[in-house]
Design a protein that fits this description.
alpha/beta; 8 helices; 45% helix; globular; binds guanosine-5'-triphosphate; binds zinc ion
Length: 231
């Protein structure tokens, strides 16, 4: 009895979230914006990646960031230095962003700027390998990060994040020589969960793999723009 009630409640919650996500995506499509949901466990390197990405491509694509954090604005402040709009969302006790929180961010962006000027909205989700993958926020693609320090088994132990990802970045590859870590085994474990995912090993520190990531990202924006015209 108890279990049935919980299951029904969870289903309603996910359903309501999905409706909100669809609404957010309609806004993005209407404005010709591509939205990427960037997810990982705490500290895998999301903000470091966004820093490098903004520096490298802000002259080619107009970027805004929606920055999810439980209680602080530390990451938002790190990114504001680069002169792009950063909307900070504190989730409080919640371990993931949901579509309602992101809707607040989108409406703030539209209120403070002309949203049609933007090409790309990067959402940095809250560090967590479980819940963010279950709650869509209206993104066009999901980017998951897994750092080499986390171990080869994580794709098998936390499958949903890896099944849902369109692009998987194996981060902090500069540290790989210091760890007994098998990059090929990480890739094989990810492929077991998701045979078609794009896998790019990167280091925000040395720059390894970043060009490949930028190219993947630019491809996403080109794909979303013509799609928006058909709506
Ligand atoms: N060696 C190395 N360190 C990195 C790399 N990328 C990030 N770091 C370090 O890893 C730590 C966490 O990086 P962040 O970018 O803050 O990670 P995050 O995923 O945004 O963290 P949360 O938002 O707290 O979940 C910092 O000390 C970074 O300097 C990398 O490519 N190589
Ligand atoms: Zn709306
Ligand atoms: Zn961060």
């Amino acid at each position: 009895m108890h279990q049935t009630f919980d299951a029904a409640l969870e289903l309603n919650l996910l359903h309501a979230n999905q409706e909100g996500a669809n609404h957010n995506r309609e806004h993005f499509d209407e404005w010709g914006i591509t939205c990427l949901n960037v997810m990982s466990s705490p500290g895998a390197g999301k903000t470091a990646l966004l820093e490098k990405t903004i520096i490298a491509i802000k002259d080619q694509l107009k970027i805004a960031v929606i920055e999810g954090d439980m209680t602080t604005e530390l990451d938002a402040e790190r990114l504001r230095q680069y002169g792009v709009p950063v909307i900070a969302i504190n989730t409080g006790r919640s371990c993931h962003l949901d579509s309602k929180m992101v809707a607040g961010g989108i409406h703030q962006l539209a209120h403070e700027h002309n949203p049609e000027e933007f090409d790309l909205v990067l959402v940095e989700n809250v560090g967590n390998l479980v819940c963010p993958a279950e709650f869509e926020v209206g993104e066009h693609a999901k980017v998951a990060l897994l750092s080499v320090t986390e171990g080869e088994d994580k794709p098998l132990k936390y499958p949903v994040m890896f099944q849902e990802a369109d692009c998987l970045l194996i981060t902090k590859t500069d540290l790989a020589p210091y760890l007994e870590i098998d990059l090929e085994l990480i890739k094989a474990n990810v492929r077991q969960m998701n045979p078609h995912v794009t896998i790019i090993p990167i280091s925000a520190k040395t720059g390894e793999g970043l060009e490949t990531w930028f190219n993947w990202l630019k491809m996403q924006t080109k794909q979303a723009k013509p799609f928006a015209n058909y709506l």
